[in-house]
Amino acid sequence: MTGHTGGCQCGRIRYRADLPSDEAYLCHCRMCQRATGGFAAAFVQIDGARVTWDHEPDWYESSPIARRGFCSACGTPLAFMFKDGTGLDLTVGSFDDPSALVPILHAGAEGIHEAWLDTSGLPRHRSDEIQSVVSRWQAAGREVP
C-alpha cells in the first residue's frame, strides 16, 4: 500500500503519504477524545519522512509530550506526533479514501466507551435519505456529498 493522499476539509492543507500497510488503530485516551471530539481517534502510524505536505499543517502542543497537526482555517484534526520522535500518526478521516484502512488495535484502552464499539445493530440512514440534510444542500445549490 503506497501513495495515499489526504488533507483538511477546506483544502488548504494537503498531503501524500506512502503507507507501508493498510493498518490503522483507534486511540481512546481522553486526550484524543478531546482533540477530535469523538469517542476515539482513528490513526495510521507512519514514519514522518514518508509524508509530504503541500502545505504544512498548523501545530499546537497538546501536552508536555506531544503535539497535534490541524488546519487553523477549518479546524480539521490531521496528525499526532510525540515531541521526541520521528513517527507521525495521520487521522484516518483526513485521507481522501480511507476505505482500504483496517483497524488492528485499540490504544488508550482505559478510555474505551464500550457502548460505542459495536454499533452494527443500530438503524442506518444515508445522508441523501435525510430530508433535512438534502434540502439544505439543495438550497446551497449543491448535491449531498
TrEMBL record:
This protein's record includes keyword Transport: no
Cited Gene3D superfamilies: glutathione-dependent formaldehyde- activating enzyme (gfa) (3.90.1590.10)
Pfam families attached to this UniProt entry: GFA
Keyword Zinc listed: yes
Record's keyword terms, sorted: Lyase, Metal-binding, Zinc
Domain CENP-V/GFA intervals: 4-110
Family the entry assigns: Belongs to the Gfa family.
Protein name per UniProt: GFA family protein
